Amino acid sequence: MKISKYKLVVVLFTAAVVLVALACPNQKNKNELPWDALARKDMVYSQIVARGVTDERVINAMLKVERHKFVPKDYEKLAYGDYPLPIAEEQTISQPYIVALMTEKIELKSTDKVLEVGTGSGYQAAVLSLLVDGVYTIEIIESLARSAATRLEELGFLTVEVRYGDGFLGWPEAAPFDAIIITCAPSKLPQPLVEQLAEGGRLIVPLGEDFQILTLYKKVDGILEKEEITPVLFVPMKGLIEEK
Q1: Do the beta carbons of residue 160 and residue 129 sit within 8 Å?
Q2: Strand 223-232 relative to strand 177-182: parallel, antiparallel, unpaired?
Q3: Across residues 142-164, what is the average pLDDT?
Q4: Are the C-beta atoms of residues 52 and 44 closer than 8 Å to each other?
Q5: Of 56, 76, 55, 54, which is closest to residue 67 (Cα–Cα)?
Q6: How many CA atoms lie within 13 A of 157 on its CB side?
Q7: In 3D, which of 17, 215, 186, 193 has the Cα closest to residue 101?
């Protein structure tokens, strides 16, 4: 999806965000929450919990990760709205509800090892890192991979490993993975990722080209069980997937 498609969204929500900012002024004393904590709390309970996300660990992670630090400075005040935002290189950060939904659906345990395809700004990886021991994330755009790695380190998300490369190939030397989350849309499921999914593992992906369905796979006795969840719209997966 091109950044330009979001300009109208940004304009429509700017007025509302200004009103929220005025209603939630900066911290006046140590007992009051800063604007971003208030906005994050509202985001989680009015946009995520209200739409059916119930996993307490996911909810707490969404409350902790400061989404405004994963978007360009011009969009900081828009960071807690329930819509995607442009980052760089014509890419986007997913809407908070979809981040929470995808995270909940892969049913993470603290001992799980997770692979993310499509690092973007690093926001999804940061959320995952509060839930599991190991997060591996791959980004095909070098500038995004570098900036995400720097951002995650500076913000203290030190259990995330970032790689610049083609997510179609996965991360063979770190496999198998208990869960794989794909945050860009392939036209079909990449076979290398299927092979790197552990027995009993879960893989979630926005599958399709012009029309995408958020789809959950579970590997049971080597066979993928499929569940279609909801229509979505993600940036397309790039690289080798386009040649297959």
Answers
A1: yes
A2: unpaired
A3: 98
A4: no
A5: 76
A6: 31
A7: 215
Which residues does the annotation mark as catalytic?
Answer: 94
Q: List the domains of the chain with CATH numbers.
A: 1-24+31-244 (3.40.50.150)
| pLDDT of 209 above 80 | yes
- The enclosing H or E element of 135 equals strand 134-139
E strand or H helix at 35, and its extent?
Answer: helix 35-42
Which pTM value belongs to this model? 0.86
Residue 170, SS3 per DSSP: coil
> Rounded distance, CA 97 to CA 165, Å?
27
| String of DSSP letters for 43-85 | IIIIIIGGGT---HHHHHHHHHS-GGGGS-GGGGGGTTSSS-E
Q: Give the integer Cα–Cα distance in Å for 105 and 124.
A: 14
